[in-house]
Q: What sequence folds into this?
């Protein structure tokens, strides 16, 4: 790490700006492709949930009778020969503890099995990959232009933040998780975030104030960015869960939702899946968020003479932490799991966002390097 | 089967399943709101149950985060006392109300303390019984296999030629190899004989560790607050400081701090370096601050050299010395009306803007005027390190010492330092002072560059601008319990990871002789939460089990009739690929 001020490389910084603008342009194209996926993919496979739900009342067949669940074929680890000798891999029968709705099938995704829709979806993903590469290159050149971690001010934090969010999304896709449904909301907000970054938050590429000369900048801030980006995905999951859950309750009550609502909701994963998705992300990120705060405290101990001093940023990261702790506890508590817990998750992420934008802009604390 | 038999059967089944699922988690159960019947003991018990219930813990957690909010909005005395003062002056109606509600000291207020103390009592009330329960679980065997394994969330079965005793033995050694805790009931002679096993106890260990670590963290923080001390000292280049109470410019300490807790040491500021951005849009932004100091430990320790930078405090004993601010101290020599030196030395000026435009005062207490009468002098003004005459402003153009200049206005009279309340050394109380006037009757003021002399009218003396020195402001912190806090925090993270990433699960293997002479093997798994990994794990276990208990050739078991279960309608069909 180059501690002493190196003059920023203006040319690289300029290239970085062009790259970010190009990434935004490609994100816009991806956005339209996702819209096309949702629009053209609407024809088939509607009403699966309703069908699954209407079967429910006849208890005997509805709740997956023991054994009528999924059977999982498992590859044997460690060498193909072993598998060949086996007569057949064991059949595993799983049986979920069926809730009030049984096991609703996940929606087919935005394309809804429609070929044209699926093509647009693939185009959208390809464009997202391209935009991500541009975005990544933009962040990288920005970093190279000043030879330091590319998250020294709010502009850099925002660009890195959305980059990690898109990266995580593409990572999930690469791991063959069915997560394409998050593509449209994600790209929309990434565009918003980048737009805000290049207009309001933009700061010229430059060296850092002495307080930021620390290797903790790499650890504390990068973790904050990664945690935030992943928590954002969890947030989208929780938000969609609330919509989908309301839709399922609507169906369960025997009412008929509107056409548009049906069309959109049918393509989303089931409420249970969305809830699980959000929980897994939030639960996984929580220890890392804890470590982010601890790392910040250690840094504060070196920089300001105390590891915890109730600076607004510290207060709000604590509030965020407690809010997520609330969510995790609520999800394990009868009477709180489900919708209430999901509201807590939304609230917790709102605290995170406020900690980022609100505290930097409204409060005058020790974390004011925002450059706004 | 008669109805009563069937009912009894179902009842035992249900009991078996309950036992199998029992205490997979030791989370507190959610009791319904039971209003106690009578007596203070009943009420106490009811209160205790409520406090330690998850619901109340949740509410307390929520209140804790709500309660923390005002502290980020309203200025806090421990964080910025000056800001609180300003707020009091600006909001004369609101401030007394805030005072009553302790909103200027949220984090030490009665109500905030009440929330977190209740929360921690609730926490202790929760983890103590959980720990006992967990210890009990560790000392007892894994729960017996439920009678009907196919009702478990994950299940598999096949038929084999191996005999039940062999199968169970193989299962037991396999599960042991996979680090399950196992227990075998019977050796395969009866239909209920099975191997019971459980794994993932570290989940609960992590959970308990996390909550205990939080308590450690809180205690460490609390002791740190009680015993801490924190003082500031401004030191001009060349000057020194020794760590005793009287030497501090300002000092704060926790309520259990005593002066003898200060580490004995001394240090001297040899040189201060500041680097600033010289060009570009962020011109003047600081890039690096460095203070070269010489320090000695104890009463007569050897002097050692060290450098203090932002983020790199100097550690002496259990104290840390931080560099927190810096600035310029013009050096002046003041002569009195008789031509004798009345004052000589550097005078620290305090930074007013990012370019180090600084303000300050020179107070001369020991002074006689031209007539030989005792008087006092005061100079008030600005120092700018980079004065550009062409810029049209008196403000500094950059924080570097390029073209230093000082603008002073001279006063004489009573400085007010000899009695009355302590006053700010950086401000001039002009209440009892009069400005010197020049020939035209205008206030006497002058711009000085190093080497210049300001001669006061009517032979009242002079001020000579000798040069400029730098000063640095240091904070000396003595903190207690930092290691405990760090240890607690890291243990909390470790515990958290364990409690969130480790799955606790139970696996049962049953083997019994079927009517056709073959052995039916049944395996079932149960996790606390529906885990995607449990089916995979069971499959892998089953695959390995089939080494010891190969699937019987030409067995119809695999697909159509997997087990000789009592009720064919409920038999697994392996459908729904």
A:
């Amino acid at each position: 790490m180059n501690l002493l001020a190196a003059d920023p490389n203006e040319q690289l910084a300029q290239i970085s700006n062009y790259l970010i603008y190009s990434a935004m342009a490609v994100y816009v194209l991806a956005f339209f492709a996702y819209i096309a996926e949702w629009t053209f993919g609407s024809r088939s496979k509607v009403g699966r949930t309703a069908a699954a739900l209407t079967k429910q009342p006849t208890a005997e067949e509805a709740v997956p009778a023991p054994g009528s669940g999924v059977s999982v074929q498992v590859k044997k680890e460690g060498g193909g020969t072993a598998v060949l000798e086996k007569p057949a891999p064991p059949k595993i029968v799983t049986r979920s503890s069926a809730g009030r709705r049984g096991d609703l099938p996940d929606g087919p995704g935005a394309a809804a099995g429609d070929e044209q829709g699926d093509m647009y979806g693939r185009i959208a993903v390809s464009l997202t990959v391209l935009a991500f590469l541009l975005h990544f290159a933009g962040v990288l050149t920005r970093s190279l232009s000043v030879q330091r971690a590319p998250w020294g001010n709010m502009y850099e934090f925002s660009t890195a933040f959305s980059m990690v969010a898109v990266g995580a999304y593409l990572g999930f896709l690469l791991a063959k998780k069915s997560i394409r449904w998050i593509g449209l909301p994600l790209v929309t907000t990434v565009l918003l975030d980048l737009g805000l970054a290049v207009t309001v938050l933009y700061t010229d590429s430059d060296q850092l104030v002495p307080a930021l000369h620390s290797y903790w900048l790499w650890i504390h801030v990068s973790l904050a960015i990664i945690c935030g980006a992943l928590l954002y995905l969890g947030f989208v999951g929780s938000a969609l869960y609330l919509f989908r859950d309301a839709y399922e309750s609507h169906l369960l009550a025997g009412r008929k939702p509107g056409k548009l609502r049906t069309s959109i909701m049918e393509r989303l994963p089931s409420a249970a899946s969305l809830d699980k998705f959000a929980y897994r992300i939030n639960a996984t990120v929580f220890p890392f968020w804890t470590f982010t705060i601890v790392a910040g405290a250690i840094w504060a101990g070196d920089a300001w003479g105390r590891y915890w001093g109730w600076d607004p940023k510290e207060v709000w990261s604590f509030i965020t932490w407690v809010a997520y702790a609330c969510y995790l506890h609520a999800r394990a508590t009868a009477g709180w799991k489900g919708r209430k817990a999901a509201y807590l998750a939304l609230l917790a992420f709102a605290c995170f966002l406020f900690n980022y934008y609100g505290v930097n802009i409204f409060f005058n604390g020790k974390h004011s390097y925002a450059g706004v | 089967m008669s109805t009563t038999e069937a009912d009894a059967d179902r009842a035992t089944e249900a009991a078996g399943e309950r036992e199998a699922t029992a205490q997979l988690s030791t989370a507190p159960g959610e009791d319904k709101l039971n209003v106690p019947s009578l007596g203070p003991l009943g009420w106490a018990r009811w209160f205790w149950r409520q406090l330690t219930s998850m619901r109340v813990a949740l509410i307390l957690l929520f209140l804790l985060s709500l309660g923390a909010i005002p502290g980020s909005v309203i200025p806090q005395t421990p964080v910025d006392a000056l800001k609180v003062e300003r707020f009091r002056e600006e909001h004369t109606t609101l401030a007394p109300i805030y005072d009553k509600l302790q909103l200027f000291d949220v984090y030490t207020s009665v109500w905030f303390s009440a929330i977190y103390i209740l929360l921690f009592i609730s926490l202790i009330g929760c983890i103590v019984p959980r720990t006992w329960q967990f210890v009990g679980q560790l000392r007892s065997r894994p729960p017996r296999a439920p009678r009907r394994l196919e009702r478990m969330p994950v299940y598999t079965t096949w038929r084999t030629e191996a005999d039940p005793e062999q199968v169970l033995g193989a299962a037991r050694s396999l599960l042991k190899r996979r680090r399950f805790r196992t227990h075998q009931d019977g050796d395969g002679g009866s239909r209920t004989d099975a191997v019971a096993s459980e794994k993932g106890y570290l989940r609960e260990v992590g959970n308990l560790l996390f909550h205990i670590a939080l308590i450690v963290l809180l205690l460490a923080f609390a002791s740190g607050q009680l015993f801490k001390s924190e003082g500031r000292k401004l030191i001009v280049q060349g000057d020194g400081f020794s760590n005793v109470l009287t030497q501090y410019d300002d000092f704060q300490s926790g309520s259990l701090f005593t002066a003898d807790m200060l580490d004995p040491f001394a240090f001297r500021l040899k040189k201060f370096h500041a680097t600033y951005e010289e060009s570009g849009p962020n011109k003047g932004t600081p890039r690096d601050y460095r203070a070269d100091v010489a320090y000695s430990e104890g009463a007569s320790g050897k002097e050692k050299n060290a450098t203090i930078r932002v983020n790199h405090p100097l550690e002496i004993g259990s104290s840390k010395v931080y560099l927190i601010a810096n600035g310029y101290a013009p050096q002046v020599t003041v002569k009195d009306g008789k031509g004798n030196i009345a004052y000589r030395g550097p005078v620290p000026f305090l930074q007013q803007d990012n370019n180090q435009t600084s303000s300050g005062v020179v107070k001369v207490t020991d002074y006689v005027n031209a007539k030989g009468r005792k008087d006092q002098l005061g100079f008030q003004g600005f120092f700018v390190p980079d004065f550009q005459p062409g810029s049209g402003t008196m403000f500094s153009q950059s924080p570097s010492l390029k073209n230093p200049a000082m603008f002073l206005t001279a006063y004489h009279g009573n400085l007010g330092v000899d009695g009355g309340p302590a006053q700010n050394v950086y401000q001039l109380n002009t209440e009892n002072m009069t400005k010197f006037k020049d020939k035209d009757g205008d206030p006497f003021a002058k711009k000085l560059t190093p080497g210049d002399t300001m001669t006061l009218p009517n032979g009242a003396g002079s001020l000579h601008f000798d040069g400029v020195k730098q000063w640095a402001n240091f904070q000396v912190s003595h903190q207690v319990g930092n290691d405990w806090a760090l240890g607690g925090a890291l243990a909390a993270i470790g515990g958290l990871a364990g409690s969130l990433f480790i799955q606790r699960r139970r696996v049962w293997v049953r083997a019994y002789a079927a009517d056709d002479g073959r052995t039916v093997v049944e395996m079932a798994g149960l996790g606390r939460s529906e885990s995607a990994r449990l089916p995979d794990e069971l499959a892998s276990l089953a695959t390995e089990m089939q080494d010891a208990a190969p699937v019987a050739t030409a067995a119809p078991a695999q697909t159509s009739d997997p087990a000789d279960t009592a009720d064919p309608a409920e038999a697994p069909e392996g459908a729904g690929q």
